[in-house]
């Protein structure tokens, strides 16, 4: 096994590469769990992430940035969710030409169900203490806010 890829990094000081690989493994576990929970509601993980992100009321561009998708792809996602009755499009209060997508009551029920499943089964909530979760969030948020290299 190449150096830095084994899980024995705890015997020595972990490198940035070790941390990155651990982060990718955990992200994969979380994505798999999200996909499993979303599938219970007939959604993909991306559709579930989209539905949850709509709670924050982002613009179409903001939603595209948050999901790492093109605005046209986000339009397709929100249209599919609307067709399933999980999202409704409403006119903006400030500009009636602009329509924003919001979760419906059915969408909110799905968001709550998936959130409960994540809280119950995610290693973030089952393996870490509250202070550890807070510290991890601060570290990940700092990385997320850093400009791309």
From TrEMBL:
Top-level taxon: Bacteria
SMART domains: HTH_MARR
Signal peptide per UniProt: none
GO biological process annotation, one example: response to stress
One Pfam family in the UniProt entry: MarR_2
Statement: the UniProt record of this protein carries the keyword Protein transport: no
Keyword terms, alphabetized: DNA-binding
Record bears the keyword Membrane: no
Record Gene3D superfamilies: Winged helix-like DNA-binding domain superfamily/Winged helix DNA-binding domain (1.10.10.10)
All copies of domain HTH marR-type, residue ranges: 16-145
Protein's name according to its UniProt entry: DNA-binding MarR family transcriptional regulator
Molecular function terms, GO-annotated: DNA binding; DNA-binding transcription factor activity
